[in-house]
Amino acid sequence: MATIAFKQVSKVYEGGVRAVDAIDLSIGEGEFCVLVGPSGCGKSTTLRMLAGLEEITSGTLELDARRVNDCTAKERDIAFVFQNYALYPHLTVQQNIAFGLDARRTHKSALAALLRGNSDAMRAESRAIDARVATVAQTLGLEPLLARYPRELSGGQRQRVAVGRAIARSPKVFLFDEPLSNLDARLRIETRSELRQLHRRLRATIVYVTHDQEEAMTLADRLVVMHQGRIQQNATPAACYDTPANRFVAGFIGTPQMNLIDGDLSVQHGELGFESHGFRMPLAAHWPSLSNASPQSIALGIRPDRLLLSGASAHALPATVQSIESLGDRTDLALQSAWGRLVLRATPESVAGVREGDAVHVTLAPSHAHLFEVGEVGARVPTARS
Ligand code: ADP
User: Fold this and answer.
1) pTM of the model
2) Reduced to 3 states, what is the DSSP secondary structure of residue 317?
3) CB within 10 Å: which end of the chain, N or C, has fewer?
């Protein structure tokens, strides 16, 4: 187990692409940290710098409070599980898992034992490796598969063998780069929960990369949301969801996406309100910093399950139901309104009588709304509670 610290770490590739831009990130011992963000945001580069597979352009990387910028991948004692498993096709499951251990033996003690002509020592080493593989196979439920070759395994089983090979060595840190992306949806969810259980058992430090925010939310102790080479938020999944640091995080975390509406904020007759395309909605006094604000551009964010159908009133936004998606335990309505397209998530019972093409009215509880400064990464305006 180990602690990890990135201090102002940047990576500029040849040709000038700044893939990672001065990130500061500390990961505690035994933590499951997930780097998440859209394709090209710098997640893999960050992971590869940590593994020692990519040179660090500037800044300091520490493992257990020791600078490791110039250490080789091997010296860092980190296990890496890639998306494409990288199993040896000509080796059985048993041999694949033992591979890292065997390689160590060949290089170190076995050679010494051989030189000393000490066959007892070699046999003891072999037994230790077999015992270690047996433990790993048991941990991952791979015992019935030990004699098989990779081509005789399903995608999920191969992935488990790759994880097995990584944990056999008891490394300080595990790195996973999109390890589930080649699995079908059902297997992805199964393997996800296996990974969580495995982490609980091993208490190992894990850094995991994915572009899938749902996968990230379910796995992480801590979520690091990246965009354009920068960390946008570093917090628990719940905090990223409930109090997104900025507009980017708000739009990226959560399905269906948060509704984000560009408009203007103003105080009229002593009351704070948000207006967009001619429709004004009052906002209660949840934003102390805005109580005396001069008119300004702002974005309003509201999650689909926080929009409500209501009767007609001066403060209810008129809308037309464009489409209805029934998902069994919930129903998503796509609405067209003066504020543009909005998605409203409801219980099936509450929208049982609603049909496509219907005229409806929508309200929101201001206590569940978010306000963001203008721009793609406009900061969230703090409320009285946060
Ligand atoms: P992610 O893993 O989030 O998809 P990457 O870390 O792979 O993102 O890439 C971040 C940025 O760096 C992208 O713009 C990508 O095109 C660029 N990049 C990645 N690898 C290289 C490379 N070897 N040479 C030049 N640019 C690269």
Assistant:
1) 0.89
2) strand
3) C
